[in-house]
Specification:
Order of helices and strands of chain C: EEEHEEHEHHHHEHEHEEHH
Shape of chain B: flat
Structural class of chain C: alpha/beta
Largest sheet of chain C: 6 strands, mixed
Keywords (chain C): ATP-binding, Hydrolase, Nucleotide-binding, Phosphate transport, Transport
Structural class of chain B: mainly alpha
Shape of chain C: globular
Strand content of chain C: 25-35%
Helix content of chain C: 25-40%
Oligomer: heterotrimer
Number of helices of chain B: 15
Largest interface: A-B, 86 and 90 residues
Organism (chain C): Sphingopyxis granuli
GO biological process, one term (chain C): phosphate ion transmembrane transport
Radius of gyration of chain B: 31 Å
Protein name (chain C): Phosphate import ATP-binding protein PstB
Strand order of the largest sheet of chain C: 6-7-8-3-9-10
Number of strands of chain C: 10
EC number (chain C): 3.6.3.27
Chains: A mainly alpha (418), B mainly alpha (458), C alpha/beta (260)
Distance between the termini of chain C: 21 Å
């Protein structure tokens, strides 16, 4: 044996100082970790605060009280035509917009018609259609203000605009209420009437199509790979494809859809159909991977038990494995669908970025989706769209967060039952 | 009479249901009459008949739906009225689609006068082909159903047959993934080859000037280096400088220090961060981060400060990637056996020494794999760069200047009013091919590394 | 329980009235025991009896389990190791541990052995460290087998070599006590024999406590044996006495293989 050294002097000053240093390093490191967590949290909080701060105002709108007297400025239209299908065109043709503009000038002074939205007369039109008697008297309409006035009233403004708003405020002509057109309408160039309903409906159609295609395909593919597939070069290829597709940038799927669905098959451009197909291809690998994990988690003893009582392999899977794996599969599917719902990039390439002023009425009709609407509005010059963009983001986040919360809830509820 | 695929699908589904009922009833009846035991339970006979009825009809329906418009148009073009049509181009297409719209009831009247005489031939052809299609579909479906129906006997192995079909369907479903992969590769390759006929591949890969113009491709305007550099600067450098330390430290804190309750609350928060759509990050970057950074840069006196800076896009992209890095690191650190940690602590190491000198080195392959996946995700990210990074192709290392990326350029090239065959459009596919190959390489390497690492500890 | 005939003149560690709880569950009930300085002490008992749990409370490894709670008094050289003034980092350096499954770090053989010295700053320079590593590997009986491949990974060694590497790693910090938690349970008989031989050689240099479920092993390597059952210390005495002449009925039943 070689020579013994003296036992370590743990109480010595040098050693004590060293240990103190090590503990200081420990505290610093731990603080660094906590800092990283807090920083991530701060990013999230900051993002949410900015969006909510900007967007909360997007749900309301400023209205200006404008009296319109149809006795002095009559609308030349036969009341009988008001219930015709083409009443909208008839009223527009009779010059209602001029009457409303004139009334605004009268009531609000010079340039008064610029203070209300250029689409304000359409509100009057709906009111007249609902109650033709309005044409026989003077009525005070709460008309949407122009975008500039709306912003000035909400945020305060200086100069001429500010003075105008102050004057309106003094006269008690301004009121603020929930902006219903925001929930009812499709896109428009005027923030006073632009809404998310068109985009929301487009999103729903797109996601339903994506789900109808991706879910069955994904689950069946996962069942095959996990339960039946022989181990050979083909199944390896399928595995590699799926794992890679799950990580391929989403924009590549847009290129695929453009080349195949639109240029080859000539499917309807910018439609929910093509959008849904694209997102289905993108989401399917995610569902396959989630479903395979859920199927893997079903213990083999259950398969053995079913096989033991004489069930065929197909019966084992469809009667026993699939029902047990379903909660896990659904969790993965919801997360995948939420991701698809927030996706924008591939849809940009298949024409869904066009301005769509109508609510889509079918899967082949040109439509847009909510994230795309956000993208389009974020590019608008009109300042009124800033808060509309944030408001649309709030709606999108609420939908996505509810989906994710549902997935987390499902996961916690059904985690490890065996 | 128009050919409405959705309604027809419902029709054959209804027929299949009848087939199912009939098959089930017949097998039960046969079993009762002959007094033998059925090989398969009655509903399998039902399924057998229903599938034989549904599958041929549905396949025919799919084929007919895709080929009949072309057949109808051909028929119309051979008619008397089509003689006056312009021979080529946009106008011809517009007239045809106008007439088709009226003939098939999607619009009330023609918009182009030239389309009016075509409406009748169109309507007739449409009707004719609808009848042919429906009749053929029903004939095929019923023939299939009848064939199956006559095969029902008590000892007929209907269950085995049905299960074989089910297996076939499962296999088909799993082939969709391969089809998609092939679809991507082929469509990108096909269009890229057309592009490389116009512009040499070496120019795209090594050229330093990116300034594509409409019309015939001009030499020296399709140099991809500035785009590649911008992509690397934003996605692989700036975003990773943000995401790797924060993501790693978050994972370390959550796995090693945090109390279970903290972990329970922080993880969902990170999942929320991961679930925020990229368009929201993009808007956030453009609206809040970019202007702030520009002001900061101006304050420091940095030249070329832009509101569309690489830094703004990169930082926000990094934030987006944090949850991804953290969850990959979390998994990797958790995969290191507890014994490793105990071994270090039992020697008197502090947790921090244990983490830095034992756990992280042991988890490194997994973490590296995760980082590669994160890079692949960052360079393929589109919306943040489209909204915040700008479109000017600069070859600069100044993070406050504006750069552009591959994905942003793909979007820009494909969202103008180009002809589909123009060099600009094709260039988007060539860029897509480069992006696809790079991310594919990163993914394959990363997945290999992670898999090897997992196996090492199992 | 009687300890009258136990002669432990110079206890290295002593436990008095120790209880260990995992959450609500009590894993160890009122255990008092002395561990001799120059002796090998074996803890035996059926699986789940708490012997490993008790061992882990001797160097406060139970601290790493969030729900674990230790009450009572455990002393090292008369110092309460659960006192606030006791530094757990130092404690574990003085009371080393070898685990059930060999757990070398995924580092080179040299770095595995040098790890403890490096973090505790026991070597002033590279030459010192070389000396420490060589001495630890020699004592662990591994030097001749690995001296030419010190830069290879520790995980590349065989199971028995890995466990001796882990012993060398513990020795390198120059501990006073070495706790071994079933160190041979993952090894084949030949490797087990080598470890037992090693324990013989280390005896007298360190106080050694070994947990084992293998009674023959306890009889071969230890001078003192403690029998645990259901979280209590049933009997403690000279190994020869425990195996030839147990005082308690339960000990006798276990030794003779009635249960376990």
């Amino acid at each position: 044996m070689n020579s013994e050294t003296a036992p370590t002097d743990w109480k010595g000053r040098a050693m004590q100082a060293r240990i103190a240093r090590r503990y200081a390093a420990e505290r610093r490191f731990k603080a660094l970790g906590l800092g990283a967590v807090l920083l991530s949290g701060a990013f999230l909080a900051f993002l949410l605060v900015v969006m909510v701060g900007n967007g909360a105002r997007g749900f309301t709108y400023t209205h200006v009280a404008v009296p319109v007297d149809f006795r002095t400025t009559p609308l030349a239209i036969d009341p009988a035509r008001l219930s015709d299908p083409d009443a909208d065109q008839a009223i527009a043709g009779a010059g209602l917009s001029d009457i409303v503009a004139f009334a605004a000038d009268e009531a609000l002074g010079d340039g008064g018609s610029a203070l209300i939205s250029e689409n304000a007369w359409k509100e009057v039109r709906s009111a007249i259609k609902a109650d033709p008697d309005l044409l026989k008297r003077r009525t005070v309409f709460e008309l949407p203000a122009s975008s500039a006035i709306d912003i000035a009233a909400k945020e305060g403004a200086k100069g001429e605009l500010g003075a105008r708003v102050d004057a309106l405020e003094r006269d008690g002509r301004l009121s603020t209420g929930i902006h219903w057109p925001f929930f009812r309408n499709a896109d428009a160039t005027d923030p006073a009437v632009a809404g998310i309903w068109g985009a929301l409906k487009g999103s729903v159609l797109t996601i339903v199509i994506a789900f109808l295609i991706a879910f069955p395909t994904g689950v069946l593919a996962a069942l095959y790979l996990e339960e039946y597939a022989p181990k050979n070069r083909w199944t390896d290829l399928i595995e590699v494809s799926i794992n890679n597709l799950a990580a391929v940038p989403s924009i590549i799927f847009g290129l695929l859809a453009l080349a195949v669905f639109i240029n080859w098959f000539g499917l309807c451009q910018a439609s929910a159909l093509v959008g849904g197909l694209t997102l289905a291809l993108m989401t399917m690998p995610v569902i396959v991977i989630a479903a395979r994990n859920a199927i893997k988690a079903v213990p083999p003893s259950i398969r053995d038990a079913a096989l033991g009582v004489g069930a065929s392999p197909v019966q084992v899977v469809f009667h026993h494995v699939l029902p047990l794996a379903l909660p896990g599969i659904l969790t993965g599917t919801i997360i995948g669908m939420a991701r698809a719902l927030g996706e924008t990039a591939p849809l940009l390439l298949i024409g869904m970025r066009a301005f769509i002023g109508d609510v889509p009425n079918g899967i082949c009709a040109p439509s847009t989706v909510l994230p795309m609407q956000i993208f389009l509005w974020s590019d608008e010059v009109d300042r009124g769209f800033v808060e509309k963009t944030s408001a649309a983001i709030i709606v999108l986040l609420i939908v996505l967060l509810s989906m994710n919360a549902l997935a987390i809830y499902l996961r916690n509820k059904f985690e490890k039952r065996w | 009479m128009t050919f409405n695929p959705a309604a027809l699908l419902l029709l054959i589904l209804g027929l299949a249901l009848i087939g199912w009922l009939a098959g089930r009833a017949r097998s039960a009846m046969l079993a009762g009459r002959t007094g033998t035991k059925l090989h398969s339970r009655p509903q399998y006979h039902g399924w057998y008949v229903a599938l034989w009825l549904f599958a041929p009809a549905a396949i025919f329906l799919a084929v007919w739906t895709s080929v009949s418009p072309a057949l109808i148009t051909n028929e119309v073009l051979t008619s008397e009225a089509a003689k006056d049509l312009p021979a080529f181009g946009f106008e011809r297409g517009a007239i045809l689609s106008d007439a088709r719209g009226v003939a098939q009831g999607r619009q009330a009247a023609v918009r182009l006068p030239a389309a009016a005489p075509l409406v009748r031939p169109y309507a007739e052809a449409t009707r004719e082909y609808a009848w042919i299609g429906i009749a053929a579909m029903l004939a095929l479906g019923l023939a299939g159903g009848l064939y199956a129906f006559t095969r029902i006997r008590p000892d007929f192995r209907a269950r085995t047959r049905v299960e074989r079909i089910v297996m076939g369907v499962l296999l088909l479903a799993s082939l969709v993934a391969i089809l998609t992969t092939f679809g991507i590769v082929l469509s990108l390759l096909f269009e890229s080859i057309r592009f490389f006929r116009l512009v040499p591949a070496t120019e795209l890969l090594f050229g330093t000037n990116w300034n594509p113009q409409s019309g015939a491709p001009q030499p020296g305007t399709f140099g991809g280096i500035p785009l590649f550099w911008g992509t690397v600067l934003i996605g692989a450098i700036i975003a990773m400088i943000v995401a790797i330390p924060i993501g790693m430290m978050t994972a370390v804190y959550l796995t090693q220090y945090a109390a279970p309750t903290v972990r329970k609350w922080v993880k969902p928060c990170l999942e929320i961060l991961a679930g925020v759509p990229t368009v929201v990050y993009g808007y956030f970057a453009a609206l809040t981060v970019a202007p702030a950074l520009r002001e900061f840069a101006v304050m420091l006196g940095i030249p070329n400060a832009s509101t569309e800076s690489a830094l703004a896009a990169g930082i926000v992209m990094g934030v987006m990637i944090i949850p991804f890095v953290s969850s990959m690191a979390d998994d990797s650190i958790n995969a290191v056996p507890q014994a490793m940690r105990d071994g270090s602590l039992a020697l008197g190491a502090t947790p921090n020494e244990t983490i830095r000198q034992v756990l992280i080195p042991a988890a490194l392959p997994g973490v590296m794999g995760g980082i590669l996946l994160a890079v692949s995700r960052a360079i393929g990210e589109t919306m943040i760069v489209v909204m915040a990074a700008g479109l000017s192709a600069n070859l600069t290392a100044n993070p406050f200047a504006s750069v552009t990326t591959v994905t942003a350029q793909i979007v820009k090239l494909l969202t103008g009013d180009q002809e589909f065959d123009s060099a600009k459009t094709l260039a988007a596919f060539a860029l897509g091919l480069v992006l696809f190959l790079v991310t594919l390489l990163l993914n394959i390497v990363a997945l290999r590394v992670v898999k090897k690492y997992r196996e090492a500890y199992e | 329980m009687t300890q009258d005939d136990l002669i432990i003149a110079d206890p290295k560690m002593r436990a008095e009235g120790v209880d260990v709880f995992y959450g609500e569950k009590q894993a160890i009930k009122d255990v008092s025991i002395d561990v001799g300085t120059d002796l090998v002490t074996a803890f035996i008992g059926p699986s789940g009896c708490g012997k490993s749990t008790f061992l882990r409370s001797l160097n406060r490894m139970n601290d790493t389990v969030a729900s674990a709670r230790v009450t009572g008094r455990i002393e090292l050289d008369g110092e309460d190791i659960y006192a606030p003034s006791m530094d757990v980092v130092q404690l574990r350096a003085r009371v080393g541990m070898v685990f059930q499954k060999p757990n070398p770090f995924p580092k080179s053989i040299y770095d595995n052995v040098a790890y403890g010295s490096r973090i505790h700053g026991l070597a002033a320079n590279k030459a010192d460290l070389d000396v420490i590593v060589e001495r630890a590997l020699t004592r662990a009986g591994l030097w001749d087998e690995v001296k030419d491949r010190l830069n290879e990974s520790g995980t590349a060694l065989s199971g028995g070599q890995q466990q001796r590497l882990c012993i060398a790693r513990a020795i390198a910090v120059d501990p006073e006590v070495i706790l071994m938690d079933e160190p041979c349970s993952a090894l084949d008989p030949i490797a087990t024999a080598k470890i037992e031989e090693l324990i013989h050689e280390l005896r007298g240099k360190y106080a050694i406590v070994i947990v084992t479920h293998n009674m023959q092993q306890a009889a071969r390597v230890s001078q003192r044996t403690a029998f645990f059952h259901l979280g209590t210390l049933v009997e403690y005495g000279k190994t020869t006495d425990i195996f030839t002449n147990p005082k308690q009925e339960r000990t006798k039943d276990y030794i003779t293989g009635r249960y376990g």
